[in-house]
Task: inverse folding
């Protein structure tokens, strides 16, 4: 390829968490250094992966001849094996280069299919997407900031006791901002702003905490979190289906799944085979998390519902979710569980 021609990259990343945002930022830094001038971003929730790739296929000019990168999203069975026009295969035929960077098990499982479509797969186990990008592309620069960012993402996806408290705290705070941004109708624009803020540490970080420019947002996050917890207590409901026990609840879109898991555990315990959280608009995503004993295969059920995920955790979409239609949707899901089991 002629290096004098401005190269364009389309980056699809996980828009809901720290690893998704940081990996998109680190990848952008790497590609800028390689002469890429234009970037287009898609920040995607697990439940909307299929929708996003459908959109790309229906808007061919957005990807034609460009280099497409996917970060921190799993290549689940619905995407890879779907028969409605073989989405990934058709996208691969349109783009100049298609690279998939991910750490989820299911992506590894579908590696052969990706390679068959000439998709370049960069996959590692137990290393988050940001860390993979750092190690593959940025390590030789010896840049403390890039390294630090990749550690923040790693501490969120694979927390261990070795991670410093400060690294964990900054990740949690960043997660709050991301979850808050998830709420707005200008979802993409705010996530892009977050990427540009990451370009310099002192834009967003100040001695162990988020920069004071985020104080207002953090205060509002706190208020939304209190409201969200009240809703969790109001809507949580155990359902026995066949020989399994499920806890279904409504997730306020301003809080992360981790917050829901923790709070519901505190109030109702962990005596269930799977926790199912219906996140309201504009997230509109159902997250299913199976218990560690593995009695209920969460990702298989998510596949059954048209979504995806890794072994014990996954997501799927079921249209718009609100406090109002939650009880009906919860009943629908219970019926689907009955069919699935
Ligand atoms: Mn990740």
Result:
């Amino acid at each position: 390829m002629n290096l004098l021609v401005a190269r364009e990259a389309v980056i699809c990343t996980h828009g809901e968490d720290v690893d998704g945002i940081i990996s998109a930022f680190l990848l952008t830094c790497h590609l800028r250094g390689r002469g890429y001038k234009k970037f287009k971003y898609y920040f995607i929730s697990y439940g909307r992966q299929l929708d996003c790739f459908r959109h790309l296929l229906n808007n061919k000019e957005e990807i034609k001849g460009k280099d497409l990168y996917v970060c921190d999203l799993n290549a689940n069975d619905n995407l890879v094996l779907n028969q409605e026009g073989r989405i990934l295969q058709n996208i691969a035929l349109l783009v100049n280069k298609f690279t998939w960077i991910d750490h989820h098990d299911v992506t590894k499982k579908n590696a052969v299919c990706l390679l068959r479509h000439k998709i370049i797969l960069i996959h590692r186990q137990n290393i988050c997407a940001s860390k993979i990008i750092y190690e593959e592309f940025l390590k030789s620069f010896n840049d403390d900031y890039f390294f630090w960012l990749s550690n923040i993402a790693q501490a969120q996806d694979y927390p261990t006791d070795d991670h410093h408290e400060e690294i964990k705290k900054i990740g949690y705070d960043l997660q709050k901002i991301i979850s808050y941004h998830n709420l707005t109708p200008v979802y993409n624009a705010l996530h892009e702003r977050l990427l540009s803020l990451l370009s310099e540490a002192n834009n967003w970080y100040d001695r162990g905490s988020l920069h004071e420019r985020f104080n207002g947002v953090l205060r509002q996050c706190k208020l939304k979190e209190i409201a969200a917890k009240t809703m969790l207590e109001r809507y949580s409901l155990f359902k026995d289906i066949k020989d399994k026990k499920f806890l279904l609840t409504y997730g306020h879109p301003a809080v992360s799944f981790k917050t829901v898991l923790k709070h519901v555990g505190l109030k109702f315990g962990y005596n269930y085979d799977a926790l199912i959280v219906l996140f309201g608009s504009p997230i509109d995503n159902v997250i299913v998390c199976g218990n560690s004993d593995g009695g209920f295969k969460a990702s298989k059920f998510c596949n059954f519902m048209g979504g995806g995920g890794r072994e014990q955790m996954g997501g799927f979409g079921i249209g718009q979710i609100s406090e109002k239609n939650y009880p009906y949707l919860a009943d629908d899901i219970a019926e689907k569980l009955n069919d699935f089991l």
In short: The chain has 15 helices and 13 strands. The mean pLDDT is 90.
